[in-house]
Amino acid sequence: AESIKNEACFRSPLGKEAKVNWVHCRDIGGVCAQALWLPDDHPLVIDRPVINVTGPSENTLGALEMASVLSESLGRSITYAEVTPPPYPGLEELWAFLKSGGFDACSESVEEITGKPPMTFREIVNEAKGQLTPD
Question: InterPro entries given for it (predicted)?
């Protein structure tokens, strides 16, 4: 957020091509809260012991697409810069997974479980404008 706010630059180690599906933490929390209340014999519990929580399909974006949405939503040009992944031991496989499109997935789980559609990436950015705009 700081590089977007202060330098108008979105930085990521994933490269221009890797697509990631963005989901708001409130959507994740809503699914978790509802799932905790489901009885053990509920079809969602029986059929899906693991719930893939994602944003809508339009939230599956590459870095340049993200920079474009950021630019449109913030009303100023936001560029993309690829950076080296942080050197945390043991996370090399995670970065490789992400860079190869490992989070390029989409499900309907948020709406199925909460009854509300998940937030779009544009809505997420609009909500965070205060943190992404220079003072």
Answer: Ergot_Alk_Oxidoreductase, NAD(P)-bd_dom_sf
Domain count, the chain: 1
Report field, pTM of the whole predicted structure over 0.70: yes
d(CA 39, CA 45): 8
CATH number of residue 87's parent domain: 3.40.50.720
Instruction: Let me know: does 102 contact 36? Beta carbons within 8 Å.
Output: no
Q: What confidence score (pLDDT) does residue 29 get? A: 96
HEC profile for the chain?
A: CHHHHHHCEEEECCCCCCCEECCCHHHHHHHHHHHHHCCCCCHHHHHCCCCCCCCCHHHEECHHHHHHHHHHHHCCCCEEEECCCCCCCCCHHHHHHHHCCCCCCCCCHHHHHHCCCCCCHHHHHHHCHHHHCCC
